[in-house]
Design a protein that fits this description.
Helix content is about 55%, strand content about 10%. By secondary structure, the chain is α+β, with helices and mostly antiparallel strands. Strand 6 and strand 7 form a beta hairpin.
């Protein structure tokens, strides 16, 4: 029976049977509420699909810019040499004519003028024989020759045990702009070159498996899983529930995948029943929370420095310090002698000279 010709009662029965099979809490809802829940699920899936498509286009922009930058950088080195060669070749007849004109005397004679006219005629003929400007841009069809040679070498380098004479003959044919018709017959005589497996990413560990270029993370205690694959310098991750629902997706650095994958799977149970938020926003918020949790906490403030046990006044320190002339064992002077009127009078009487 086609899904387009199904009655409402049969559709409700099919939805309820599917909900019971997957232990969905909507299995016990009334028929109208069950249809409404299925409609909301279809709308969310449509929003998630469009959202994922736009996110994928945005992430591919960074990859395209990196490829374009690498291609321009590789061509720039060759373009400079081609331009210098074309300019030197095109200006060589003019340089010869200017040299003869610069060496003319103040009053040139008929013979010298005739020689200058002959040089100008030779310049005109040389420029005519130089050909069109297309040959200046691609001298001798070098671009096509290099492209053909690159393809031939790429095919031959993928095999081992090839005959050296056949390889040399094919390379010579490519340099002479001859079609290498028997290249695949030569390649079939060799053995495939062993390809070393790519290195494992930094996050590979318990819970991670690899299949067909994709990495998947699935803990033992949940049916939800995270799929990851490289996208340029970043890694693209998407979270799937046990029922095949796309719950979150986005791109992060390789160093953040190990901590982010468990955080995503831990929220899969809640997100599979609450689909009110965008999948890309869930991913962004979880990634930011994981980064914040990984940051080192601020160290506690240092305790205040203890108060100085000795006074800072230089006169007081000098008073309490032991004098080198003081006998050992005698007490040190008090930090601040109290000056009174009686002590001042006794001091004055002691220093007054006797008559």
């Amino acid at each position: 029976m086609s899904v387009w010709n199904t009655s409402a009662a049969d559709r409700v029965a099919s939805l309820r049977e599917q909900a019971v099979r997957y232990e969905d809490p909507t299995a016990h809802l009334p028929d109208l509420e069950l249809l409404n829940a299925a409609y909301e699920s279809v709308l969310r899936e449509q929003i998630d699909t469009r959202d994922r498509y736009m996110g994928l286009l945005t992430s591919l922009r960074k990859h395209d810019e990196a490829v374009r930058t690498a291609a321009v950088s590789a061509f720039k080195d060759h373009a400079d040499r081609y331009a210098q060669y074309a300019v030197r070749r095109h200006m060589k007849p003019f340089d010869a004519l200017l040299y003869r004109a610069a060496n003319l005397p103040d009053r040139p004679g008929p013979r010298q003028l005739e020689g200058l006219r002959a040089a100008a005629e030779r310049v005109r003929l040389e420029l005519k024989d130089a050909g069109s400007t297309d040959d200046l841009i691609d001298p001798g069809g070098a671009r096509h020759t290099l492209r053909t040679l690159r393809h031939v070498v790429g095919v031959l380098s993928s095999r081992e045990g090839l005959d050296g004479s056949d390889v040399l003959r094919l390379v010579t044919s490519a340099l002479n702009d001859e079609a290498p018709f028997d290249i695949f017959d030569v390649v079939s005589q060799g053995t495939p070159r062993p390809v070393s497996p790519p290195p494992q990413p930094a996050f590979a560990g318990p819970g991670w498996t690899q299949a067909h270029g994709l990495w998947a993370y699935q803990p033992d205690d949940t049916a939800a899983h995270v799929k990851a694959y490289p996208l340029g310098e970043d890694w693209y991750l998407d979270l799937w529930s046990g029922h095949g629902q796309l719950l979150a997706f986005g791109t992060v650095l390789e160093t953040e995948v190990a901590a982010l994958a468990p955080a995503l799977t831990a929220r899969a149970g809640t997100w599979s029943h609450d689909r009110s938020e965008y999948a890309w926003r869930r991913f962004t918020d979880t990634a930011q929370a994981t980064r914040t949790a990984a940051l080192p906490s601020d160290p506690p403030p240092a305790p205040p420095a203890p108060a100085a046990s000795r006074p800072e006044d230089t006169r007081v320190r000098a008073a309490v310090a032991a004098s080198p002339n003081r006998p050992t064992g005698s007490p040190a002077a008090t930090p601040g002698p109290v000056t009174t009127a009686a002590s001042s009078a006794q001091h004055a009487a002691a220093v007054r000279p006797r008559r």
